[in-house]
Amino acid sequence: MAEQVSSLKTNIKYKNTPVGKIPVDWEVVKLEDICDEIYRYPTYYNIKYVQQDGVPEVRGELIEDNGELSNDPSAYRYISKETSLKFPRTILRQGDFVLSVRGTMGKIGFVSSRLENANMTANLMRISPNRNKVFSLWLKQYFLSNFFQTRLNEASSATTIKTIKAPELKTIELALPLLSEQKKIAEILTAVDEAIEKTDQIIEKTKETKKGLMQKLLTRGIGHKKFKKTEIGEMPEEWEVVKLGIVADLKNGINFGKEQKTDTGILTIDVLNMYSASIFIDPTNLYRISIDLTKKEDYLLKEGDVLFVRSSLKKEGVGWVSLFKDFNEQATFCGFIIRARIHTKKLIPAFLTYFLRSDRVRERLISGAGQVAITNISQATLEHFIIVVPPLNEQEQIIQILSSIDEEIEKETTHKEELELLKKGLMQVLLTGKIRVPA
Fold it and tell me: Do residue 304 and residue 348 come from a single domain?
């Protein structure tokens, strides 16, 4: 990929066109000029679904953000071959695209050889490029670009629900390089896509490794031979099993009005700051509130405070915990959060945070929550919540193992973000011809 990027050349002549300034040897075409067909069947009815030996049905929710269609066979429904043959113009071939035209309009999915002869639902439009005029993988990159999404929105029907019709889509204009240059551009951008996908796979694999280790370390510990039965399952004999309220003080966050949000007040932790990948509070997008906490110092956070999401619109979000690390200035926490402050030297806050984030413990936390319009967890529930307290040296070992995996995940996540930024920049210059590639 580095060799491909370094081979890019500049200094060429441009011309002004309806789609902006482009190289003189590029042309402006309508989408219909480079496609064999752009088609949407208006109604999809009398569908017969089968359990096996059927035709995959491609739906909008199967389109992924990277322009691919789901690789999970279980995500698809299958229609009978007889049903598929009744709708020959919605049968897909390799190199075609499906475009979502309702709901989340503009999601684009590339049809690989795996889905050759699949069929699509009525809420999708089939775009079949002319292989003699356009390279499918170049067109995929154009469809994923901001250029296409902007023109799609401009061309779409002005209705309450955003949608696009085939005649409107056909008239969208784009800048078209020579076929040989299309292939080079696609090669470079696809190489970055592959690097992003590989990094994503590393992240997911590392997360799975961490999940398995958490399950083992937080129930079996390190090097134990003897175990005891407890009310939360079998645990090492040396581990204490106690209620959270015995080892920590709990406090609800502070309530305030919208008018108290200011640019100069005290930093405030909100629920949105809680869902970080690491065990620590996400410090981005913090807001401030104007409030005097001189006589309410209990609302000021301290290093090592463990914070719980008290209220969540989604049941899965309630009880999620993050650890507060000093911001070098005072900070407080909103009323949708409960603070736990450990008052014993026997328990390390980082260990407690990892423990409370493990799958089995999360299930217990969620099951103890109450649900009306939103899901809530109370101080009383948390005070009686059972936790484990291993010996300090074992807590430290477990923290070291899990934090090293967190660091690896964070490193790969940063690498992925850098690649995505590179891809965005390359699309900006390659798809406009500001930088040329040797064809």
Answer: yes
Quote the CA–CA distance of 162 and 397 in Å, as a whole number.
54
Task: List the structure tokens of 144.
Answer: 């994923």
Helix or strand or coil: residue 1? coil
CA angle 188, 192, 196 (to 5 degrees): 165
Non-local CB neighbours of 265 within 8 Å, separated by 6+ positions: 288, 289, 290, 291
27: left (phi over 0), alpha (psi -120 to 50) or beta: beta
Identify whether residues 248 and 123 lie together within a single domain: no
Is residue 173 within 8 A of residue 29, CB to CB? The reply is yes
Sign of the torsion formed by the C-alpha atoms of 232, 233, 234 and 235: negative
Question: Could you give the count of Cα atoms lying within 13 Å of 320 in the half-sphere of its Cβ?
Answer: 22
Report the pLDDT value the prediction gives residue 6, as an integer from 0 to 100. 47
**Helix boundaries (H) for 281-439:** 349-357, 359-367, 379-383, 392-430
Taking the C-alpha atoms of residue 66 and residue 197, their distance in angstroms, rounded to an integer, is 9
Give the number of domains in the chain: 3
- Give a yes or no: residue 111 inside a domain: yes
What is the domain range of residue 3?
1-25+178-223+391-439
Helix (H) or strand (E) holding 151: helix 146-155
Q: In whole angstroms, what is the distance from residue 289 CA to residue 299 CA?
A: 13
Residues in the chain with pLDDT values less than 70: 1-12, 43-45, 158-160, 369-374
Burial grade of 358 (CB within 10 A; 0-12, 13-18, 19 or more): middle
- Cβ-count burial of 426 within 10 angstroms (0-12 exposed, 13-18 middle, 19+ buried)? buried
CATH number of the domain within which 297 lies: 3.90.220.20
Same domain, 50 and 18: no
Q: Could you give the CA distance from residue 381 to residue 365 in angstroms, rounded to a whole number?
A: 9
Give the Cα separation of 344 and 334 in Å (integer): 25
CA–CA separation, 89 and 91 (whole Å): 6
Kindly report, residue by residue over 31-60, the tens digit of the pLDDT.
999 999 999 877 666 778 888 789 999 999
Q: What share of the chain is helix, strand, coil (3-state, %, to 5)?
A: 40, 25, 35
